[in-house]
Every structure is written in structure tokens, then in C-alpha cells.
Amino acid sequence: MAHPRVEQHRFARAEWVRGLRGLREADGIRRLEPMNSISWMVGHLAWHERLMFLERAQGLKAEPVLDAVAFGMPASTPSLKAMWASWTRMTEAADPFLDTLTTEDLLRPWPHDTRSQAPSSGSQLQRITFHYWHHIGEASAVRQLMGHTRLASFVGAIERDAPYRPESDEP
After folding, report:
1. How far apart are the first and last CA of the chain?
2. How much of the chain, in percent, has pLDDT values that exceed 90?
3. Cα separation, 77 vs 42, whole angstroms
4. Closest CA to 112 of 157, 61, 47
């Protein structure tokens, strides 16, 4: 069983996927200014997964295409299909590492985080988890503005899929 914070992160990922179910390419690349396109949001979260769990945590380089959707980059409308593919690769690459994390690990900065005042990896894991919730709401609002109906309501089945579990129960 993964660390409770990792379980919560995976739940946020699953809610992200659930919230975008049925989104077509044409709507995914559509931009309702000043918001970014949903395809940009998908790529942006893939970039954040790469930054946290591959680069800062493991020192790995991957998917340079995601640099275009990094924090602070200009708005764009990349292919939704391509961004989902990158997101899937980044999350699948991150998962084996996430499965190894302990509370002790989360108290230290990521090993390859070169910032002088790097926060703990646990704080960074919380940041990316909360980042998902930000974009879940934003993407839902964009879909509503596009006239989409029967959208997912949030929060889903957290009691079943990611219930509260004390950190003392970690593996």
C-alpha cells in the first residue's frame, strides 16, 4: 500500500481523468480567454508530474515537449491527444517511484531539487495534489462555458477510493 499522501495524489489524478471524460479534441484545444485550453491544462499537469517526480526526485529528463506548457509559458492550444499521451507516460513513469515513498522521505527535499531553499518533498507532493484540484475546477468551468452537460460532480468516491488513513499505517 502506498503512503497515504500518495493515495490522495492518485485520487486527485483519477478525479482529473473523470472530470475530462468524453472531452473531444476540438473542445480540448479551444481557448476561452483569458483561460488556457484544457489541452494546455493536461500538458501542464504532465509537466508538473515530470518536474516533481522525474526531475527533482530522480534526476531524470523526459518529454521536452512539455517545456512549452511549463509554469509561466504563454498560452497555447496543443493537441489534446498528444497531451493525454504525455500525461499518461509521465504518471506511469512516476508511479513506481511514488510507491517507494515513506514519511521519512517526505520530510526531506527531493534529492535532485537544486533550489537553495527547496521545500520538503511532502510539501511538494501536497502542492501538485492541490494543483490538480485547481485545474479540475478550472476545466469544469471551461466545459460549462462550452455548454457541456452531465459533467462529473466533485469530490467523487473518496471514502471508497482514498479514505483517510493515518500516516502511521504506511507500508
Report:
1. 6
2. 92
3. 11
4. 61
